User: Fold these one by one.
Assistant:
Number 1:
Amino acid sequence: MTTNDAETYEAGDVTLRKVREYVWEVPKEGDMRVPARVLASETLLDQIADDKTLEQLRNSTHLPGVRKYNLCMPDGHQGYGFPVGGVAGIDAEEGCISPGAVGYDINCGVRMMKTNLSYDDVQGREEELVDALFANIPSGLGGGGVVEGDIDTVEAILDRGMEWALEEGWAVEEDLAHCEDEGVRHDSDPAKVSQKAKDRGKNQIGSLGSGNHFLEVQRVTDTYLDVVADAYGLEEDQIVVLIHCGSRGLGHQVCTDYLRDVEKAHAGLLSQLPDKELAAAPAGSQLAEDYYDAMCASINFAWVNRQLIMHRTRQVFEKVFGSDWESLGMDLLYDVAHNIAKKETHTVGVGPEGRPAGGGKAADTEERELYVHRKGATRAFPAGHPEVPGAYLDMGQPIIIPGSMGAGSYVLRGGEESMAETFGSTAHGAGRTMSRTQAKKDYWGGDVQDELEQEHIYVKAQSGATVAEEAPGVYKDVDEVVRVSDALGIGDKVARTYPVCNIKG
Amino acid sequence: MSFELRDHTADVAVEATGPTLSAAFAAAADGLAAAMCDEIPDSGERFDLEVRAESREALLFDYLDELIYQRDVRGVLPVDNEVEIREGASDDGDRARGSEWVATGSARGVPLAGLGAREVKAVTYSEMALEETDDGWRAYVVFDV
């Protein structure tokens, strides 16, 4: 794992070629269908090369129909099958869709809600606020949900996403206007989601879960692109709330169910893949259609999950600050998905025989519909892209990059280069660098909480072990991740935030 | 039978061993419980489960998935796992489908309320191993956290 000269990077049996600053290419060899690219500084590359990320990235290029190159974002790390931080644009006619390459937590994502409170308004009341949030927002394992639903409720959510929340009074129209896809995937089909998945979901509607999921009250410490920050309604010292969670047991079960179905129905394709977790349904097959519809339904479920938590947060702030949420300016900035596949149109190369081609030797280019798999990566569409909601069409889509509970987070905007370079994608967070088992040896939850309190960060969790596993030291440097995204022009820095209160499972 | 939690950058891996295939399965299930909770109390009622799959490895996946499913719908952490693994004819009698693998077992369900357990989201096939060794059987499973 050394750099032998300026142009290549040796990582075990993989040699990466430097394409330009922060862009490293793993050449196409063996059964790889396209090359792979890692977007990283050398510091980040040292961490990426330290586990099985590169092996998993190379394996992902064996999927049929991959176009151009598969990518690893600057925060990438080892996952299961497909790396976390992985992006692949796979042809929606000639390729495939892979449940494992989307991940178990379908539409795990983040949303940021603004307030018109300043840090001064909150200082001295952090403990009251963190206690009220922790008492009112379901978290952890078996903590229930904001809504006690039945199967009909689950099916309505799967079908209509945030439109259901609007009908039921959990959302206002403005919330939908500030969400990726306006909070509903119309391709959803609740009938394609198993009873088992619905049974798991019905007790968890509006819940954080545990692991790396959290709700954090933050203060804006810096703004960078002031025109964009103004348009987003962000300014220094402002209090904002970040919510990170996904589709809970429902989404986990959907991925599990389809992974097993695909394994059984498409064993021939699976036998060509180096990792069983990459099991994929060929484009056009019944399972590809069914999985896509079930995944879209799970995406709807996750949006409602975050919406209900946001609704409950508004109620907590109303109580703590004695004013209604509208007066507190608690408007949704944006909601972005981290683990998804979406049919999107991208420009890819066309080979000499008129067939879509990977690599850089295409005779020409054409628009193709792709299943863009993003696992631990965020969509980053620039200003003017037709799929950016009207509210942000002139500025580019907001991107929310959560850091650890000791380091703060960023708001970016979709960069001009993202469509050409990354299938319209950028990083999704800081990215882990230490295992959970090691973290529990190195840290004790109580000490981590005490040290954070010295920094005026108030943390409350269902489990001390979760605090240790999520200690700031287990994450990569979020500043470095964002610096690379900004320098590459795929996601531009707009604002930085710093934690005030954090609750987790 | 025994298990160890192994390092993985983002997730948790369980390495389980046992003198028999059944013992290795039960140890992997106890490893799953340990990945979610450090100190397991004595409370809870036992419940039964049965899982069928087309191969040994698929059965390990489905057995552990069933425990995660039961956790969410029953609101309990399945611990003290006992299981018998056998190979049998498909219950629909269709000989052309060949044999299938069956897990018949039980677990003690510790109520999740107040337990402070962390969520394991799912079983994965990534790096999964299930192999016969000189001493019996060894299973290696990465769980998504």
Note: Chain B has one domain: 2-144.
Number 2:
Amino acid sequence: MPIQSINDFVVRFANVNGSGSASANQLFARSIIRMGVPVTPRNIFPSNIQGLPTWYEVRVSEAGNLGARGGTDLLVAMNPQTWQDDVAAIEPGGYIFYDSSRSIPKSQFRDDVTILGVPLTEICNKRYTDPRQRQLFKNIIYVGALAALLDIDIKVVEQLIGEQFKGKDKLIAPNLEALHMGRDYAVQNFECPIGLRVCHADNIGDRIFVEGNTAAALGAVYGGATVCAWYPITPSTSLAEAFMAYCQRLRVDKETGQNKFAIVQAEDELASIGMVVGAGWNGARAFTATSGPGISLMQEFLGLAYFAEIPAVVFDVQRGGPSTGIPTRTQQSDILSCAYASHGDTKHVLLFPEDPYEAFEFGAQAFDLADRLQTPIFVMLDLDIGSNHRLCAPFTWDDNRRLDRGKVMTAAELEAGKEFGRYLDVDGDGIPYRTYPGTHPRRGAYFTRGTTKDRYARYSEEGADYVDNMERLAKKFETAKSLVPGPVLKSASRKTDLGVIYFGSTAPAMHEAADMLAAKGVHLDLLRVRGFPFSSEVTDFIAEHERVFVVEQNKDAQLRTLLMVECGIDPAQLMPILHYDGNPITARFVTKAIGDAVNQIQERAIP
Amino acid sequence: MTYLPKPKFHHPDIETNELGFTHRDYEGPISTLCAGCGHDSISGAIIRACFELSIEPHRVAKLSGIGCSSKTPTYFLGQSHGFNTVHGRMPSVLTGANMANRDLLYLGVSGDGDSASIGFGQFAHAIRRGVNMVYIVENNGVYGLTKGQFSATSDKGSKSKKGVANRDTPIDLVAMALQLGATFVARSFSGDKGQLVPLIKAAIEHKGAAFIDCISPCVAFNNHEGSTKSFDYVRAHNAALNSLDFITGRAPITADYAPGSVEDVKLHDGTTIKLHKLAEDHDVRDKGAAISALHRIQARGEIATGLVYLDSDPDDLHANLNTIARPLNTLNDADIVPGVAALAKINAALR
């Protein structure tokens, strides 16, 4: 029996990289959103520019489940290379849409799926002579055919094409023509719609549809970043590029045409973080964007920034490690390498945004925290939220908000004779005052170094000075607990001994899994951690539950380790739920993993 | 080792500059380098140059990497902010600092280990970006703090203190700087203050990437027979291309030159370099000729010193980035935060 489902299914496009499918696939996803139905697309792409397989998965979910689900209901098979695996992954009763220009033996299909062949190449070759046109319009033709098959409102698609080519109006008519060629073929040859259908709904509200990297870059603009130094690395590159684009739009002085920002593409990650440290030392808000290998390269500088107490912001768009790992797949596997970056006794502040909305929020807040705490702040994105469009709450700002530049002693204060000791804890919070270079002719100058110093920044190799400084740094880290974003609690509908700690891009899959488990009678209190160091709310939550599952997207249970080490939690109390194959974690996976674990606990409990 | 401030008293008739400062106002605490170290002479030359140019000490940012040379910024300009960064990475920190505030004078101090080995890449890229700075390499051809290993600028055949000859080809940082687009390139010798001080002054006034390779013998590990970076060797093989006076107009310096050609090089900002040519055929504005002069003199077994190349109308990083005249670190909320209205438009475009 073919799957019957309205506004709740997964379409997987299997394409060839570089074939121009990305914009057509996005057109498909946006059309459904415009019909008021939540959609979450995910790019599954290779480390390649042209020729290798690439996939675009679109989850349609009127209920608003934005996590990956797993499985395929409708396969759009545009890549013979991956045909077999793609067909095998279709759910029983699913559908396969393919280019039937060349006949494919029946043995290559499955008996339990509905076959929808459209001779895309034939249609294209008949209409177009230019090879590039044949390729690009083929993509639009399949969007047209899918619109008919899935009952997508063709007017919505037409409108989006109009918006997409605004300013290049000559392209609108040929695209509409191709769209209708596909649609007409489907209407004439199949019974439309099929069992999977999109119906107008009203479940989008005022939400926006944006990539996490873009959101984080905009956060950096609103957070007052003026210096960006970066080195291209997947999947963080688009963050620096988005910052550039937003700065060009929002930060060019109208009178002079000059830039109120400075962006340098550095020679490597070492130079990127070096420039950020130099700019931060000199009083500008500065950041870099990178991924795991970049974090490895930056270790020495991160230790210097920690010890010399220099504000810096690092956006880490995580991918799979170790080493080059799986560069175009997602993971949350830099938690420990960021939390303890560099040699010696170091500890760093981490922020964990769950979606583009928080990527913007934390992206801006990170700069206040960096200045307030005078230390590097890591915004821990990952490929799943960084490089994919996601529906999220619209960005918000308050015009009364002011950049918190932290404790900076001014020329007037120095002139008035206020005592200045660069590493002097005057307020008891472990945070000293700093001065920007060039502030005052006679007072406030100091020498910054990675070696030990006394409270007045004078070089010292005395053990007592070293210990004094390290203890103050520890106090400062304690202060950070109350400044980082607090955890978000989502209580179960009834009292339970079971808790879950999760973070970042895992959120939508976790929420959906919790609902699925609740339906099976497994009730879970959820705590989404949003910052490190952990506040007492996190330790209280753990104390209040007999068992806490720590769900994360890495193999070594890195957040669990951090909880054990930093909060002194008994390992037996924290059960790891780990997903690390490089694909985004799914609700199905979490449901099964936690469900199995709960069963085991219960079996053990029965004498 | 501890921190030793210098006593403040000085001679009542001590010379003062336009700002009323004495050269003592440009000093730092007492050096902890070996007695007789060439680096201390360079510190002295920096102090003298800043004093003569009447630079406000607090408007200088001095940055360094790691090594003996990189320790020296502590020992001069005590009223300037300083930053002892990580090994070989001073250029990137200086670049970032310069991006944040284009109005300070950036003095980068490094060594041959710091700039020609671990930091070779950063040296190259800061120069090719045209960062407005004075980049001084205190070049002694040896790793001093780790006690006598060859550095990448050690000449082929030069002998270590233990008598081992270096087999690797040396890196000529002056030739590199020329190739990479430095707009002011010089080489000098820590033992020749008469040449070094005006070079530093001219480099300070230069509004672009100024590079000075300063040969600075290591008295502890590279000042022996068989070394090509010893005081005796450098004195005996120094082939000066020119000697110069740097004239700001504020404090004209008159010097009596022996007969020979004297050339006034007018700079974009109205200052003048009075160049006393010693090598008749050397034109400091001809980069190609400068490179061949370096090769020719090196082939003779000599060391070319003096002003090697000068672009009197340089561009810098900020010109390339088109940054506003105000330092970025002075921009406030109103300058850089786009606000609610702009965000509403962005939100609308993302629906």
Note: Chain A touches chain B through 73 residues (CB under 8 Å).
Number 3:
Amino acid sequence: MSWLSLSPVEFQALTLSLWVAGVSVLVSLPVATAVAYVLARCRFWGHSLLNALVHLPLVLPPVVTGYLLLLAFGRHGVFGPVLEIFGLQLAFTSAGAALAAAVMAFPLIVRAIRLSIESLDPKLEEAARTLGASPVKLFVFVILPLIFPGILAGAVVGFAKALGEFGATITFVSNIPGETQTIASAIYALLQVPGQEVAVARMIGFSILLSFGALLLSEILARRMVRR
Amino acid sequence: MTVTLDIQMRRRGFLLDVKFNAPAGVSVIFGPSGSGKTTLLRAVAGLDLVDHGHISIDHVDMAGVAPHRRAVGYVFQEPRLLPHLTVLGNLKFAQKMGRLVSGQSFDDVTDLLELRALLQRYPVALSGGEAQRVALGRALLSAPKCLCLDEPLSALDQELKQRILPYLERLRDQTKIPILYVTHDATEMARLADHIVLMRAGKSVLSGPVSEVLTDPAAVPFLGIRAAGTVILGCVESPDPTTGLAVMSFAGGRLILPELVQPIGHKVRIRIAAQDIVLANKMPNGLSALNILQGVISDFHHGQGPGVMVQFKVGETFFLARVTQYSAVQMGLALGQTVFAIVKASAFDPAGIGS
């Protein structure tokens, strides 16, 4: 079973990938839910602008997104000095990797949640309002539970996207083993060196396993929701 | 408590212009579809905005008050239960949604509507009638100052309607809030109404107590020939010794009825449609009909068709009978004349007998 045992660098890549994907999804979800709700329900000036902005990372080349992140959050970027005041550094750090993954996953999460909000029956909300539900209570006790499957779907899709994110990540935070090297960038690094086929296959195997596991978990959760 | 409204709203090509008072009890809003009944209820609940005029509930002006602060319980045509909650969850939801006053007690409502056996079920596992009962219970538990029922039985078949009507009758007799009940079903109206508001093309054309409106010849064009008639409130007496049939006494006399579910001494409410009465100008004999009432003609209404509506008074109660123009002339019917009304057995449709 020696071919299964991970080198420390590979192990770090694996745990970092999980951390990056997990953090990016957790941070994105509340914001994505709010943005999805606004896009689905509110009509205002700038609606299509917001919509385009949200979808930008989906259509831009990931390298461009990564470079834009660098321009914005790099040490000499637009927000760099502000971040410095708080002692934060994003470029070339694992937190930056999470930010890059979150930005790339964001449009996918918003889309999934928005779809479930749009499929909500507004008649139910009317009924809840006549029963005395204020807008906040309506959201917490009616809308949120009803769109939970959509949020779950968004989380899974976002997690998978964050796990595999490569272009923006490598541009924004580079490929530093132990700090910013995720599974995807580790595979890329291994491919640069001849004779690493076994290691590459191992990483690919883990990558497939993780994505599959996430999918399975969401399927089980969703089924439990439906059974109720 | 009372609901007062005087509102104008423009809606896709027609103008809703309604003015009436709904005191405690059931006010049935009756009219053909498209006459603005639902829009009217939605305005009361704050779901649709009024262009001009005002709505007040319990003497509080509702202008600018959001739906969740109005305390208007609303039962829609379809149950609209929250699918992610059990029946119990739906009822508790209504209770906890932040009304200051406490509503009817949970036990009272679940008993009234017989919901106890359903509490653990999810809405998908309920039949149409059960779901609508839960919707009604949910509205009651939200501590409403006014209830709006928008054709709550229209989605149900005849048999289910008959099963739910007694619950609504009990509700009417037990709560002291105004209930606005929209329907275009004459049977429902006759069984439930304390007051009637007739709607036609967005306007409230006539309103008043049920016994006045249903026997008002002027209301016939708005009610339709089938719905016109009288609603009699009476009391069940011991069965007639000679016939063994049930007897009901009312302000004006007694009626012999084929069968009653209500026990002796209980209130009973029956509707006798104008078309189920035959008039005679002499006391008839040799008839199979059991009920012959003596009355005095008090009003006429000539419609566009071949019929005439004759209003007559038996004791304190007004009745309406529909006869042809031809027989009215042949019999020489005139105001103040004494007539004998033969009530056809078909008048006593069990579906129309309520409590």
Note: Residues 158-174 of chain B form the longest helix (17 residues).
Number 4:
Amino acid sequence: MIHRAHVVEACALLRDDPDGLYTLPVFVTAVDWPDREPAAPRYDVVYQFRSLHHNDVCRLVVQVPEDDPTVPTLEGEFCGMDWHERECYDLLGIVFEGHHDLRRILLPDDWEGHPLRKDYVSFGEPVAFTHNIEWALPAAERPPGMPGSSR
Amino acid sequence: MAAVLPPSGGLPGGEDPFAEGRRRLGVAADLDTVELTEIGEDTMELNMGPQHPSTHGVLRLVLDLDGEVVRACRPDIGFLHTGFEKDFERHSYQQCIPYSDRMDYLAPLINNLGFSLAAERLLGIEVPPRGQYLRVIMCELARIGSHLIWFGTGALDLGATTPFLYAWRERETILDINELVSGVRMHTSFIRVGGLMADVPDEFEAMVRNVVHTFPKAIDEYELLITKNPIWRQRTVGLGTISAEDALAYGMSGPSLRGSGVAYDLRKAQPYSSYDHFDFDIPVGHNGDVYDRYLCRMREMRESLRIIEQALENLPSGPVNTLDRKVAPPPRNEINTSMESLIRHFKLVTEGFHVPRGQVYQAVESPRGELGFYMVSDGSNRPYRVKVRAPSFSNLSALPYMVKGGLIADVVAVIGSIDIVLGDVDR
């Protein structure tokens, strides 16, 4: 577990140090813990690297708070992190500062919310029929309080 | 010298609708005044997919073309995103298995295995040897089946129709085995947490032996058709090259990485499910081009057959499921006679088992590369979070690098050579 200010240098060290040589970026993702004790940050950003030379994997965890879910991008160190960071932003809303093209990757560009957050309501959305036709409206024009909208 | 097209493009009095297209192509409306666009001055944006037969699913590529040359490639994915990771959080562990089938739908059993191994590591249970060997046999059959699809469709993309039909014929025998053991041909959900759906029937051994005996000849036949075929070599040798360092930086794995000369296979490097009991080689390429990735996969099918043969020879007897009754349901005859077994069965079916708190990363070698399951448990009967590390996702992210500067016709060859499954990319 490390602080986000040191992520880039830690990963560069893991990659370049002869005892590490973690050259293969496996993934980056995040785990949402909204019910952790109040003082603890809400998100765990999880990095995983693989060293083919030493046949080993290494996992780094960076905790980021709810009101500022940002970590620096690792794009410059591993070009393979590009898409993984976009996916993490798309599904969990973690912002990777300095990423050249931080757009949604799996969901449509106009999607609202980040589905893998624990407070995202992902079932019970009504289907728009005549009696609830307002559900078919764009999200901004929908009456407030309809189920299925994300916080 | 005659002006073939009327200057207005044929529409009386209206605007010329083809003017923009002519300008880009360097064709003047009046052929006497043809002006060719200078190379590099203007690129054309071409949309390829998502409904394109050569993109192996719903992959959309936006290509910047300079004539025939690809200057940039921007993949657009997500058309098959199904939210499986969210589904995992809402289902008990055994209920997640059918979802894992549907991610990489060409080798569903290997997805089952990855999920099951991750959950078993959290539970701290081990599957008996017979279960492990049967898992290996089924997974290697799935790997061959997946490679056969890659071979057939990849060759079809480049204009060779015959291999497609041959590969489908052979794959049918593998699907028959799936049907025999599980009742389902493709999304079998045969591998479960704690073992297998059931032990295999008696006909299983003969059918697998048939595969082991007939497939080497079939693969010889494919190689005769394709491997030294001059047209195939012209379309694949030296194309879509990627060096070992770049492939690693992009997070590539599996045969796509081994084609660049990196001998890394999780079955050898970090053996799971008794893979260390078997003797097999890791085929590697040298040049990292489409042809080397092709050769790697063809040889991999032969290695898989070797593994199946050894596993079948040494298939242990005994149970296939773990004996831990907190995970595996009791046998049917016990339920009839024992109240405790009946209660246990009821609890397992309605509630599932609880998995101790913790987190684990379990990677398996799928036909496409490193398929990883990062599983976090909070002690309940459902996974708290499952992150699927999809091999196709990382492999596809290297596509723009591999096709840049090549010809548009070769984009199709490169997509075929990294063997993506869009269900795996988008999850």
Note: The helical segments of chain A are 7-16, 81-92.
